[in-house]
């Protein structure tokens, strides 16, 4: 079986976003993990409108071309790490919208989070974990929370994320968890597909 493919999803599209910094950092760490392949997926490349389909794609095919392209992209992966800025105690609208524009493509795959902002993006991450469960994902316990002091130090150029050891340790734990669950769940999905083919024969 091929190695699980993990997406690092950039969860902000603002021109002045901080998201590129943690994305590059966590992607570099993830790419050192021998058991997974890693790709950065930028929501800027999928300019989705606010959700305006007749129903979730779980129930009816999406009509929007970008939505169709997004769903195909999500389907390529066996697990996800999302960067999660916290706005007003929650995740960014663009990330929640992107999550809503796919359905079955998320199922039975692990999700991990790199939060930043107020209290390390913890409230945004907790909300995203609830969304992940509803989509039959497996949100992992380990997470990265770039707290306000570290966030400001990096934003102002006083430090780099790789200079902050507790964040490096959290990132390593996160990647290890996502890699483990991606491997296990990929095998389980493959077994389900074999069973389904046998029953249909």
UniProtKB/TrEMBL annotation:
UniProt GO MF annotations: FMN binding; oxidoreductase activity
Domain NADPH-dependent FMN reductase-like, residue spans: 4-145
Region forming the signal peptide: none
GO cellular component: cytosol
One Pfam family of this chain: FMN_red
Domain of life: Bacteria
PANTHER family documented for this protein: CHROMATE REDUCTASE (PTHR30543), NAD(P)H-DEPENDENT FMN REDUCTASE LOT6 (PTHR30543:SF21)
Protein name: FMN reductase
Organism, scientific name: Rhizobium loti
């Amino acid at each position: 079986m091929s190695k699980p493919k993990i997406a690092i999803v950039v969860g902000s599209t603002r021109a002045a976003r901080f998201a590129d910094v943690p994305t590059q950092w966590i992607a570099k760490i993830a790419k050192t993990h021998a058991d997974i392949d890693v790709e950065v997926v930028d929501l800027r490349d999928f300019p989705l409108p606010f959700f305006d389909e007749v129903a979730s794609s779980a129930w009816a095919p999406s009509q929007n071309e970008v939505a169709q392209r997004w769903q195909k992209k999500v389907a390529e992966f066996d697990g996800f790490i999302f960067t999660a800025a916290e706005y007003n105690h929650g995740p960014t609208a663009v990330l929640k919208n992107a999550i809503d524009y796919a359905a079955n493509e998320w199922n039975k795959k692990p999700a991990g989070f790199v939060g930043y902002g107020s209290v390390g993006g913890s409230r945004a991450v907790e909300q995203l974990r609830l969304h992940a469960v509803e989509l039959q994902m497996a949100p992992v316990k380990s997470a990265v929370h770039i707290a306000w002091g570290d966030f400001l130090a990096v934003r102002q150029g006083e430090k780099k994320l790789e200079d902050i050891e507790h964040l490096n340790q959290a990132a390593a734990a996160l990647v290890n968890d996502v890699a483990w669950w991606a491997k296990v769940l990929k095998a389980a999905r493959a077994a389900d597909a074999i069973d389904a083919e046998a029953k249909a024969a």
